[in-house]
Amino acid sequence: MLAGCGGGPRAAAEADGAEAWTPLLDAELSEWRTYLSFRHAPGYAGEPPVGADGQPVAPVGYDTDPDGVFSVVMEDGEPVLRISGEVYGSVFTRREFADYHLRLKVRWGERVWPPRTELLRDSGVLYHSVGEPGVDWWRSWMLSQELQVMEGHMGDYWTIASSAADIRAFPPEGDLDPIASVRQPFRPFGGGSPNGGFCLRSADHESPPSEWTELELIAVGDRSVHVVNGHVVMVLARSRAVVDGVEGPLTRGRVQLQSEAAEVYYKDVEVRSLARMPDAYAGYFDQP
Q: Which residues form the 3-keto-alpha-glucoside-1,2-lyase/3-keto-2-hydroxy-glucal hydratase domain (predicted)?
């Protein structure tokens, strides 16, 4: 930067090789497709759902939404995505993304559905999504990495299907879950790791339930950062997955927004390409 020139977000973005923001949400959901699986009942244990006759029930499928699980409402002239949560599934981007910065805002609705009527409200941002939906335990989503969207757990990590990653985190101990910490070394999660396939975010930075929470995902190469309301809550590296019996990098894919038994709203969904990991986050990947 030339001497005497001002700084600020625009200058920082240019220094990081970031392109302009591209909105992904409009009234027609033109950038998205949908997939719906099942109305899971209490007691679901991972087995294929069956009907009253004991025969397997087919998933609802692609781009079919008879109950209006996904809809767009207008607030202050801007499109807001409503996900009712009544049926498990996702709305997912038509395009795949790699080396990008995603940001969006999320707010909880009031409705909850079986099998989570007595549990925390739940959704999620699934990134680097590849293949067909239905490969996970809930038979609803694509192989991917999850940035958790849950009451009190914004920014947690879950593996989806055969994905795995290394996370700066304290290891699990006894009944204690692993918890992310930038002061800790990278540890493996998923892929049969003794650390399991789940890691808690470093701290709770969620907004009050009636307010919007801003989430950001910075994903460059096999590295990613989960950010909640401006706070880094998770640092991940070596994103990978087993596909057709072979483990390899998982560094690009679609973005899924989950329908998971709770009403939730998303807005200001936008993405920009990155040439490299932004300076604000690059230092988190220096080994201790």
A: 21-272
b or e along 117-137 (b: 16 or more beta carbons within 10 Å of the residue's beta carbon)? eeeebbbbbbbbbbbebbbbe
Alpha-carbon distance of 55 to 152, in angstroms, equals 38
Whether pTM exceeds 0.70:
yes
**pLDDT per residue rounded down to tens, the chain (288 residues):** 323 333 444 445 555 778 999 999 999 999 999 999 999 999 999 999 999 999 999 999 999 999 999 999 999 999 999 999 999 999 999 999 999 999 999 999 999 999 999 999 999 999 999 999 999 999 999 999 999 999 999 999 999 999 999 999 999 999 999 999 999 999 999 999 999 999 999 999 999 989 999 999 999 999 999 999 999 999 999 999 999 999 999 999 999 999 999 999 999 999 999 999 999 999 999 976
Domains and their CATH numbers in the chain? 17-39+60-285 (2.60.120.560)
Look at the alpha carbons of 234, 239, 243, 246 in this order and tell me if their dihedral is positive or negative: negative
